[in-house]
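Hey there, shall we discuss this one?
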Amino acid sequence: MAPLIDVVFLLLTFFVFALLLTVRLDVRDIALPRLASAQAAEPQPVILIKLAADGIVHVDNQETAWDDIADAITSAHDARPDASIILAIDADAPFGKAAQLTELVEQAGIDKLQIVALPKDGSGESAPP
């Protein structure tokens, strides 16, 4: 009979190799099959509202004063009513400013809002445009 320590080392070795194999599978690129029925995804219209760490707000990539945010959002939404509203808040932005911005979006009559974030595991590469 094998001593218990040999069995423990054998199990440890097995789990280490199993872990390495699992990590390799996650890192590999995959090649998607080409199908005759496949279609390109249609780009969706978006209204992007960004709050920087220093409190500066951009609505559709134009710097907007705090007093004009609701009007800018309303006019952008009126011009493109089918556009999704996306809110990108810098991780270092003050929470109070983020709450005020969310309230201004609601005051502009927008009830559906998407908030952009990176995955917690850090697999995202860059911040939103």
